[in-house]
Amino acid sequence: MKEEERKEIFRENLLRITREGGRGNFLIFGEPTEKRFVQFVGDAGGEEVFCDVPVAGNRLGEAEVRKLEAMGFSSDSEVLESYGRRMGVEEAAEVTERIFREVFGLPPDYGIAVTLELTESFQDFPQREEWLEVSEEIGELQGGLYSALLRLTWLTSSSLGLTRDRRVRERIVGTHLGVLSALDAMVYHFVPPELRKEFYERAKGWRKEVEERFEKR
Predict the structure, then answer these.
(1) Counting CB atoms within 10 angstroms of each CB, which of 13, 89, 125, 189 has the fewest?
(2) How far is CA 164 from CA 108, 157, 172, 207, in A?
(3) pLDDT of res. 79
């Protein structure tokens, strides 16, 4: 497949996730032979898309990660090991081609496969109010699970005298942050967009609580 043909495919589908469906439209461009892929999330009516490049899923080494960073990608999670950045559709089409060629090292004639998932508009959901109620319950459950885990881990590790070692404390903090990331993922996939911001703000507070609690020990 020629470069211009691929870019047209990229551009056409990227436009779809900003013009069709609802919030949280999902798009994957994949190379079938080497199993390399780049994924995007976009909202209908939005001007930008979020590009995400998983490290483990693409079997990327340090050199490839440095190339992503040179393109402006960054990672805010030590657990998920995924690099991303937000950009407009035209830039996204160009960047996608660069990732496949420069980061993944694919040949000039590589082929592409497309997976597109368009969501419904949340405003059009027939059970919108019920969703909001359930979402609030999920948020409370998220907080309850995290708080219980925090107390249980601290009690157990304190009883065994493990928290006296700073390296052990750092590992415990890392475990808690990993759990928070998993809970965040649950919110992203199951909670309507209007409520996500509130839950993410809660998660930031929990992260701060974890770090401060173990720093004081």
Answers:
(1) 189
(2) 55, 9, 12, 21
(3) 47
